[in-house]
Design a protein that fits this description.
This protein is mainly alpha-helical. Helix content is about 50%, strand content about 0%.
Length: about 70
């Protein structure tokens, strides 16, 4: 289990029970449905897989783009 997975596990536990850990039996709806946009029937909670990928692409772009900060 990586850092992102541990973070997601804590978010899910807090969302469903308000505690630090939970099992799948306590989850009322699949997490992928919870992370959907509100317009698509979800709750609009950010999906950390997508957010992580976007931040990595942004970092790669910044590393390959030379700009002066002056």
């Amino acid at each position: 289990m990586g850092i992102k997975d541990a973070y997601d596990h804590c978010r899910q536990a807090f969302f469903w029970l308000g505690k630090a850990s939970t099992s799948g039996a306590n989850c009322l709806v699949a997490w992928d449905k919870v992370t959907r946009r509100r317009e698509l029937g979800g709750l609009g909670i950010k999906d950390t897989n997508i957010q992580n990928a976007c931040l990595l692409v942004k970092l790669i772009h910044r590393l390959h783009t030379s700009t002066d900060s002056t």
